[in-house]
Amino acid sequence: MEPFDINNVLGHFQPIGLKEMDSVKLMNRVDMKYILPADKIPMILSKLNGYYKVLEIDNIRSFSYFTTYLDTDDFLFFNHHMTGRLERHKVRYRRYESTGVTYLEVKMRTNTNRTVKWRIKTENQNGEGFDAASGEFISRHIKLKPDQLKPVLFNNFKRITLVNVGMTERVTIDFNLTFADNNSASAELPYLGIIEIKKEGSAYKSETEKTLREMSVRPTGFSKYCIGAAIFNEIPRKNMLKQKFILINKIKNEYYRSVC
Length: 260
Hints:
The longest helix is centred in the C-terminal third of the chain and has 18 residues, at 242-259. The two termini are 15 Å apart. This protein has an eight-stranded antiparallel barrel with strand order 2-7-6-5-4-8-9-11, surrounded by four helices. It is globular and about 45 Å long. By secondary structure, the protein is an alpha+beta fold. The chain has one domain (7-259): Hypothetical Protein Pfu-838710-001, CATH 2.40.320.10. The protein is 26% helix and 35% strand.
């Protein structure tokens, strides 16, 4: 249980269901990410009430996700991210615990700094191996053979999803992050909150951007996969994340000063 009250604030938002939210899938979009102490999330939510609706399923408004990240033996996707490759990919299984549905997903960051995502439903729960449909899906979207990929990182988190009243923007708020590797080592980051704004274009200024700017929270690149992979593995170029870990540690100290 997080030492800050999110559910009470969420209770004041108007709800939106999955079917209604389908019109705001934003599978081709511009992303902006922010990281901050997780205990600031209720204050941010209180400022956004009235501008956004919250996803609700069976009277639940914050949902658990389980993600299995795939990469090659030499962490090709990780290295593409670290070197700033203009067109790079991420491959993962994501299970939505609230519905029990698992998707195999491919995300691509384009050379125009947009994010494109493709996904298919799958019965695979652990990320081991591909059936025929999944193998064909992988081959269609990345220039690797499916058998070159393997599970390298596991991640749990909770997510709140907001949709603006104009139905043009999604905001996801993640917290209670945990990571594990193939050797059952684990790491918990309960102090970290991640906010991501997803919209069609960069010209439109969202209420979330405005609120975070007023709170002196600035956008920063952040990848759950890269951070988790760097925690457990001695990978070339992981030192390029040094400043990111310094920021995470600063957030950790601020969080514990606030809640203790």
